[in-house]
Amino acid sequence: MNAPADPVGPAAHAGPAAHAGRTAPVVAVTGGTGFLGAHTVAALLAAGARVRLLVRDPARVAPALAPLGLDPDAVRTVVGDVTDADAARRVCQGADAVLHLGSVYSFDRRRREDIARTNVLGTETVLRAAVRSGAGTVVHVSTVGALIPSADPELHADSAVGRPAEPYLASKAACEHVARQHRHEGAPVRIVYPPALLGPHDPRLGDQTGRLRDALRGLMPLWPTGGFPLGDVRDTAAVLAGLATAPAADTPDRIFAPNHWLSTADYLTALRAATGRALPAARLPGRAMLPAARLADVLQRGWPWHIPAEYGAAYTCVHAVPVAKAATAGGPAPRPVEETMAETAHWLYRAGFLTQRQIGRAAERTTR
Fold it and tell me: Among 75, 84, 259, 289, which residue has the fewest nearby CB atoms (within 10 Å)?
């Protein structure tokens, strides 16, 4: 059964003041049927929030939420696109908090136009509607990639917006400017920076989950040097739910989600430990691999199957820098990387994307 559509009318959208006496906040969420979105919905419902989703296709709600043990009827839905001003107004109106997670996360250049339209125009549309609605908390979900390349050795709350030469990251940098402008004008906008995310239950097998799967299938014998911040999707979801349901008065404007800095060598070491598999691979200088990765992107335009050598991934490894420890001080500690990888691999096996042999001893784990 699809989640019910959110009713439109004075009773449903009476404005934030009408919810002031309620103990359960109304939280509007875009991107709620995606990987981070679905886990965030789970965390919000566990915190007692009433969740309203903006969805293009209501049929996606059940497949995204049910595997997490959620009743799809526990959320309300507004049907529409993040670039649709009227749909954005309807989902935000009367909400106590708005979480904007809706974006296209992909390094696939075939989706370049969709990435620019959905991410940039969608952010402009949703944040404008959220601010105008009078919601007490508005959260824009960015990415650490929006801050690279960085002139600093570490990322921190005052890091400048990057100028990345890659379509997805460039779109997120543009979104970052939009969110910061709203904050500069006095709107209650906070920005959260998730790292690269892994974990169980990825509704559409996104970029990071797909990369781990490709590694376990033996399709990634070459890796660039460099590294990137990595975290567990459930840790970032908990941070977002906390901001929406019980924001502290002294919460900073810009928040980095729990993460570990991993070199690509560290990544492979952790994956070997999680699975007990040898996973032979060579590492080449990252900058030297960029031209080959760009060529793979060009070839991908006419090749019907995914090529697991993406320019965006190599570019990130070359230019990413660690998040300063002070930037996450006081927040929740990230889960151990090996635990996250093992549970991701085990879920991929249970979902039919990998064989038991391919996940090795991760098959012994119980995915939560």
Answer: 84
